[in-house]
Amino acid sequence: MGKTKLTTERKFWKKVGRQGLNDCWPWMGRKAANGTGILTVNNPDGSTRAVGAHIYVYDLMIDDVPGASHINQTCGDKGCVNPAHLELLLWGKKQESNNENK
Ligand SMILES: [Zn+2]
């Protein structure tokens, strides 16, 4: 059943208050205590797991998210899932967000 990914993607975008490219895209679904969005993702075996909505969208639209990393909202809004407002921080060495168009 190869529709798992599509379903998850559609579920994700339904919960995003998508606006202009440079605006914040507020997450309208469940949120963690720290304010970041939580998306429930279906595993191939039928179980589910919770992933950060901002991590999901970064992985979906920008690049893979390594395990030992953190996604930071440059706009300061923890509930924002606009990829343009997200930067990947690797633990230990904080990367500056300098035009990384991957
Ligand atoms: Zn934002």
Produce a short descriptive summary.
This protein is α+β, with helices and mostly antiparallel strands.
Overall geometric form: globular
By secondary-structure content and strand pairing, the structural class works out as alpha+beta
Strand order of the main beta sheet, please? 1-2
Tally of separate helices: 2
Write the CATH architecture name: Alpha-Beta Complex
Strand content: 15-25%
Largest sheet: 2 strands, antiparallel
Instruction: Indicate how many domains the architecture comprises.
Output: 1
CATH class: Alpha Beta
Cofactors, ions, other ligands: zinc ion
Helix and strand pattern: HEEHEE
Q: Which runs of at least 5 residues are low in confidence (pLDDT < 50)?
A: 97-102
CATH structural fold name: Homing Intron 3 (I-Ppo) Encoded Endonuclease, Chain A
Rg, rounded, reads: 14 Å
The helicity comes to 10-25%
Mean pLDDT: 87
Distance between the termini: 30 Å
Number of strands: 4
Fold and architecture overview:
This protein is α+β, with helices and mostly antiparallel strands and 102 residues long. The protein has one domain: Homing Intron 3 (I-Ppo) Encoded Endonuclease, Chain A, CATH 3.90.75. It has two helices and four strands; from the N terminus they run αββαββ. It is globular and about 35 Å long. The C terminus is likely disordered. The site of zinc ion (ZN) has 7 residues, from loops. Zinc ion binds next to loops.
Topology:
Elements (H helix, E strand, L loop, with lengths): L3 H11 L23 E5 L5 E5 H9 L7 E5 L12 E5 L12
Antiparallel strand pairs: 1-2, 3-4
